[in-house]
Amino acid sequence: MTRTIIRTEKLCKTFSSGGIQQHVLKNLDLSLVEGDFTVIMGSSGSGKSTLLYAISGMDKPTLGEIHFAGKNVAALNNDQLAIFRRNHCGFVFQQIYLLDNMSVLDNVLASGLLVNKNKKELVKTTKERLKQVGIDENSWSKFPTQLSGGEAQRVGIVRAIINNPKVLFADEPTGALNSSSSDRVLDVLTNVNQNGQSVVLVTHDMKTALRGNRILYLRDGVICGDLQLDAYREKENLTRYEKLKHFLAEMGW
C-alpha cells in the first residue's frame, strides 16, 4: 500500500526583481510517495531547486499548501520551520557544508545531538553508518579538508540521515564530483533508498537520474512529464537508459 508523504496544492512561487515579477512555480499540484527515489529534472530556470526548497521547508511559497508529515509546512513560521526541518528532513547539496574545524565523526555527531541526546547510542550509530558508506575508522578523526570530494559528500549523506529523516533532499549532490566519486555517492544514495529512505533529488545529469524510480520533468514552473520506473538495478541499466532517454526527448530536454 502506497502512502503519500508530501502533497502540494496550487503551489506558487514568485520572485520580484526591478519591479518585474517572475513566476517560478505555477499552481503546482504534486504527490510524493513514501519510499520513492524521486528525481526532478528540467532545463535551467525551470523551477527544480525552487520546488525542492519549498517542499522541504527551506523556503516559503508565495501561495498554496504543502502537506508534509501531517503539517501544512507553508503555514509554519520561521522558528517552527527550523524545528520541522531538523526533525523530518535531511539535506545534501552540491557544495559540501561540513565544518572544517571539526572531525568527520564530530561533524555527524553535531547534527545528531540536535535530536538524539543519547550520545553513546549516537556514536555507535554514526560509526556504523560511516562504515556502511565506505568511510573507515582511519578517517573518522580527519578534518573535511583532508578528504576527497567524494569522501566528504558521503560523510555529508551520513550527517543528513543520522536523525532518520522522513525525506532526504538532495540538490545536484554529484555536480562537483568526478565520475568515480560521483558513482560512489550515487551508490550510497541508492542503497539508503533501497533500505527504505525516501529521497527527492534535483539533477540535470542523466546518469544521476537513472537511479530514481520516478522522474518528474519541470518546464516553466509546471510538471509536464512524469516517468515511472522500477527500482534501480545495475544489470538493467541499458533498458532503463533507453526509457529515460526517450522520455527526455519527448520533454524536449
Describe this structure in words.
The structure is a single chain. The chain has helices at residues 48-55, 78-88, 104-112, 119-132, 149-161, 179-194, 206-209, 237-251, and strands spanning 4-17, 20-33, 37-42, 63-68, 71-72, 89-93, 167-171, 198-202, 214-219, 222-228. With 253 residues, it is of the alpha/beta class. The protein has a 6-stranded mixed sheet with strand order 6-7-8-3-9-10, with helices on both faces. The two termini are 33 Å apart. It is built from 8 helices and 10 strands. The mean pLDDT is 94.
Summarize model confidence as the mean pLDDT: 94
Distance separating the two termini: 33 Å
Poorly predicted ranges: none
Helix content: 25-40%
Short description:
36% of the residues lie in helices and 28% in strands. It has helices spanning 48-55, 78-88, 104-112, 119-132, 149-161, 179-194, 206-209, 237-251, and strands at residues 4-17, 20-33, 37-42, 63-68, 71-72, 89-93, 167-171, 198-202, 214-219, 222-228.
Entry keywords:
alpha/beta; four-stranded antiparallel beta sheet; 36% helix
Helices and strands in order, then pairings?
Layout: E1 4-17, E2 20-33, E3 37-42, H1 48-55, E4 63-68, E5 71-72, H2 78-88, E6 89-93, H3 104-112, H4 119-132, H5 149-161, E7 167-171, H6 179-194, E8 198-202, H7 206-209, E9 214-219, E10 222-228, H8 237-251
Parallel strand pairs: 3-8, 3-9, 6-7, 7-8
Antiparallel strand pairs: 1-2, 1-4, 4-5, 9-10
Helix pairs in contact: 3-4, 3-5, 5-6
